Every structure is written in structure tokens, then in C-alpha cells.
Amino acid sequence: MSENILDINDLRTSFFVEGNEIKAVDGVTFQVPKGKTLGIVGESGSGKSISALSILQLIENPGKIVGGSINFKGEELTEAKNSRMRDIRGNEISMIFQEPMTSLNPVYTIGQQLRESYKIHEGLGKKEGTKRAVEMLELVGIPSPEKRLTQYPYELSGGMRQRVMIAMALACKPELLIADEPTTALDVTIQAQILELIKALQDDIGMSVVMITHDLGVVAETCDYVAVMYCGKVVEYADVETLFDNPKHPYTVGLLNSLPRHDVDQDELVPIKGNVPAPDEMPTGCRFAPRCPHASDICSKLPGLETQEDGNDVRCWIYTEEWDGEKGVKVYDRESTT
Ligand SMILES: Nc1ncnc2c1ncn2[C@@H]1O[C@H](COP(=O)(O)OP(=O)(O)OP(=O)(O)O)[C@@H](O)[C@H]1O
Ligand code: NI
């Protein structure tokens, strides 16, 4: 058994708006084994970004972590002091944010910010720091890096800014990198280059990664484990081969059939019927039941996340003794989907 660098258990993060509690993250459990990459997938609004921000204790009012635990290398982050969290965010866990403007300081040039990071983490002086900054900008695919160093974040295009952010996040050689849709805004070549860079750093320093993405092709290429989220809950967690070869939750199967994958033609994609329920119309039982082609009476109760024979953890009644629907239901039919 490998050791987990991150172990999240029953994490709950809510927003309190006009007297209502919106349960953005509603009992999330997953692990990131040391040196490995966990992918988090799920439709928009399923709580992926809020889970990531919760790990770093970056949830702001009216949001709040209301329960559960976040264990990072044996340390409970939900109880960590602000000063300790600042230390962790600067040195041990880096995040590439979905919205790039948020983590670059608008009043310093790109060069000043990168050099500062190399100074803090590796004690590099101005000259050496500049050299490293140029190398790093080259690695993330930024043309004429010397010129970029003298520019401010607002002077760069969105795609350039995202690449600078990635360079910044990797500069401190974090033990854990949380990447929230790191490459969606970038073109395919740069995207591949950046995923390569993350992989190289992973091999080099044993970095662990949490990769949030909509792209199942990216998951297949970069992740070792996958957590599938729906309405604030993990509905399936498995190693990447098991998830693609033998998905169990009807939502996972729906995603595999509906989201872009590099190994499936675009015209074979089948969208999942219906929409994600609004927060005030959240089913009390299985959150996916209203959209599930297999739903039965028992689905009005919430199933637990249970480990199956193949090793997937699945939150679905079909795989329990209590299942009262069609026997031997074939949730995933490879013949008809690939
Ligand atoms: N500031 C906020 N105030 C109220 N509710 C919020 C706020 N931020 C997030 N939420 C709630 O949390 C839910 C999960 O948001 P989150 O950003 O984690 O989704 P996501 O899975 O990252 O989606 P996407 O793929 O679009 O990035 C949202 O659907 C929304 O209901
Ligand atoms: Ni998000």
C-alpha cells in the first residue's frame, strides 16, 4: 500500500445565502497517494473548485467548511492556523487557479514575481533567478521570455497569463500541485507541453497532483486515480484503468459517453439527459436518480460510497444487496458505446 499525501474524509463546504445553506461540497471523500495524480471530473457546479479551495483554506464568506477532515501528510488542515496555511500555500501545496488573474500580483512584473519565488525557495540571487525564470517561461511555451519578465500581468493575454501562473505554481517545486482546469484556455500544442512539464516535474521531485478537468482524454493520459463528482459528492473513485474499462456508476457511464475523449469520435457522444438539479431542488436520496436510466424505488434513499470487487468505490444502490430494480442491469455496455 502506498502512503497518501492527502486524505480527505467527508468534507463539507457550504455557502450561506439569504438564510439558505447551499451545500457545494457535501461529504467528499478521496485520497491522493504520494507521487500520483488524482483526476477530479464532473459537470459544471459539481463542487470540484470548491473542494480544491477548501484544501487550501481559501473559502471566503459567505462560504465555510462545515465538517469533515483534510489530512495533508498527517496534519489536519481544517485546524491549521492562518500563518501555517500561508506557509503551506507558499511552499508545500501550489494551486493553478481556474481564473488566472487571482494569483498574480498586479503591481509587480512577471520577472519580479518569479525571481521572488526562486529567492525564497532556492535562495537564488537576481542574476540566477532571472536565468531560471527565463528557462521556466520557455518550458511553459512563452515566446521571447526575456521581454515578458519586464511586463505586468495586465499586459499579457489570457493564455499567456495562464502559462505564467503555471510557471509560478511550479517554481517552488511543491509537494502537491492542485491544477484547476489548467489547460482549458490553451491551444492543444501548449496544452500537451504543459501536461508534459507537470509530468516531468512529478518524475523529478515526486510531486503529487490533483488535476481538475472536463477532458477525459487528459484524465486518461495524466491521471493514476479518478474521483467522479456529482452535486457535491464523489459518486465513484477508482484507478484510471478500472474507471475507463469498467465504470460502475450510471453517472460515470453517462460522462464517458458524453464528454470529449481522444479515443472516441465526436459524433458518438451522447449527452446525459436532463440537468443538474438546482440547490433548492436537491434530491434527498441519490442525487443522480432523477436523470438515471436505471433508477428504482430505493434510489429515494441516499446510498453510501462502497468498495466493489474491481476496486472502484461506488455510491449506487445497484451494487448493493438492497437493490430492488432490474436484476443484473448492464450499466456499461462497451459494445454499444465504443
Ligand atoms: N460564492 C458562492 N456563493 C454561493 N454559492 C456558491 C459560491 N461559489 C460556489 N457556489 C456553489 O458551489 C457549487 C459548486 O461550485 P464549484 O465552483 O466548485 O463547481 P465546479 O465543479 O468547479 O464547476 P466548473 O466545472 O464550472 O468549474 C456551485 O454550483 C454553486 O452552487
Ligand atoms: Ni471549477
TrEMBL record:
Its EC number is 7.2.2.11. GO terms for molecular function: ATP binding. Residues 6-256 form the ABC transporter domain. This is Nickel import system ATP-binding protein NikD. It is found in: Cell membrane. Gene3D superfamilies: P-loop containing nucleotide triphosphate hydrolases. It comes from the Bacteria. It comes from Salinicoccus bachuensis. The keyword Nucleus does not apply. It catalyses: Ni(2+)(out) + ATP + H2O = Ni(2+)(in) + ADP + phosphate + H(+). The keyword Glycoprotein does not apply. Its main location: membrane. It is a peripheral membrane protein. InterPro entries: AAA+_ATPase, ABC_Ni/Peptide_Import, ABC_transporter-like_ATP-bd, ABC_transporter-like_CS, Oligopep_ABC_C, P-loop_NTPase. It holds the Pfam family oligo_HPY. The lineage of its organism: Bacteria, Bacillati, Bacillota, Bacilli, Bacillales. Belongs to the ABC transporter superfamily.
